[in-house]
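Let's practice the habit of predicting before peeking. Look at the sequence and jot down your guess about where helices and strands might fall. Then scroll down.
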Amino acid sequence: HDTFQYLAKHHYISDTHFLMALGDYFEPKAKAPVPVWVFAKDLAHPFEREMILIPDWMNLGEAAALRPMMRKASKKFPWTAKKSILFWRGGKTGHENAGRTALVASSYKEPTHIDACFTDNKASKDCSFVSPANHLQYKYLVSMDGARATWTRLVWHLHANSLTFKYDSKHFQWFYKGIEPHLHYMPAHNKKTLLEGMDWAEKNPEAAQAIAQRASAFVENHLSVEDMYHYIIVLCQEYTKIFEN
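Done guessing? Here is the structure:
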């Protein structure tokens, strides 16, 4: 809301009409008369495929603070000083916890390779909140959906100069078409693929670091607040052309 007000006030966008879903989920019972603007969509859902992706309010609100924080942490934790372990912290969120639960269980079976736990489970091992900046002390970061997409997490994971292991997902955010497996991140979908990917990275440190560097460069070059504003401006301009016709 603030973003559109700012862009309209400074005449970057003109008046137009559109439908926007403001929550994590928008599950229509039938096809909408016009494309709905959403923060994430499920490509497996027939009515969501035609929805229009826009930058979510969390990334718009936090990018300005996260970027300098991650740059500073990258200097504090260079690649050669990072701990060689697969690291994840998060909560039990939404209805898609199977993957997260399996990951946490794997950390008990493979403690020398995987460190994962729920920060909202006080009965578990040391699972206090870990800030984004302190994630950078680990060489391998695991990104996995919660109730919907990863929101800011994948962005700062990619910016961490650590190798991101992104779990397969049917949920898409606006920038996903710009990132590719093995180029910006390592794909994963279970413990086996995580450990195989980590083993490859340990045997090929220069190639693994190159993936991390490309990911960080992608965020620097394409996911700033200004980039997100530009995305919205172009979207509004193109959408208005179609709407007025």
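How did you do? Residues 7 and 218 are 24 Å apart (CA to CA).
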